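forwarding from the other thread:

> can someone predict this with cobalt (II) ion?

sure thing
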Amino acid sequence: MIIIKSLKQIEGIKASSKLAAKTLDYVSKFIKPGINTEELNTIAHKFIIDHHAIPAPLNYSGFPKSICTSINNVVCHGIPKTKDVLKTGDIINIDITTILNGYFGDVSASYPVGKISKAAQQLIDQTYQSMMVAIKSLKPGLMLNDCVGKKIEAYLKPFGFAPIHDLGGHGVGIKFHEDPFVYHFNTNQSNTILKPGMIFTVEPMVNASLNWHVAFDESDGWTVRTKDGSLSAQFEHTVLITPTGYEILTKI
Ligand code: MF3
Ligand code: CO
Ligand code: CO
């Protein structure tokens, strides 16, 4: 069931989304060769707690840390670790979800570590653009798949990139993951009509390959990697459908 949020809920989700975006902006300034992802986790955790909020990933279905840190061929849900030390040429996605006064906001972005290859920068840039092309098309009355799945897949194809299929965006706000499931590829299904008051994420995970298959880490239960070892990037915004179009809530 897709929740149409009330004005009060929208205000609460807006505030949490803004804090999530501010946290991401803050922690991203610490990304540099030599820092480890456990340190990034600690920085983000403290920032969120200091702002009277809770990091939603911590203990979520047993997730052990406060943020997700996904390096290079890790698609998403990377677990921060002292031994994961960033080095020049890496790319890293940091995913932040906050709970503020009971409301959830969810945002992520991919960043270069030091100087990266042209190919890696191209992946980051086009992943961001694919998310924005989808978000800019959102409007009440249109089909979710026409705006998100179809647009993202079509945008990426000429670059030889593919959005992954096994994970997607989601309704968000009252809970971490709500309906609808937001596919980032064309499902050829027109069953969700956009309506004012819907809030969901658009968060394409994009492989630098036309192979979108992933491998789930059996030993830690979380880390998702590209099956073919290619790089993967991701961006995420929480968006509200308004009477005339959309509003990005995860803005600083
Ligand atoms: N923030 C992720 C998302 O965009 C979900 C992370 S679940 C966790 O949906 F448990 F790994 F934190
Ligand atoms: Co999300
Ligand atoms: Co997220």
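The helical segments are 7-28, 37-50, 118-136, 144-147, 149-156. thats all i got for now
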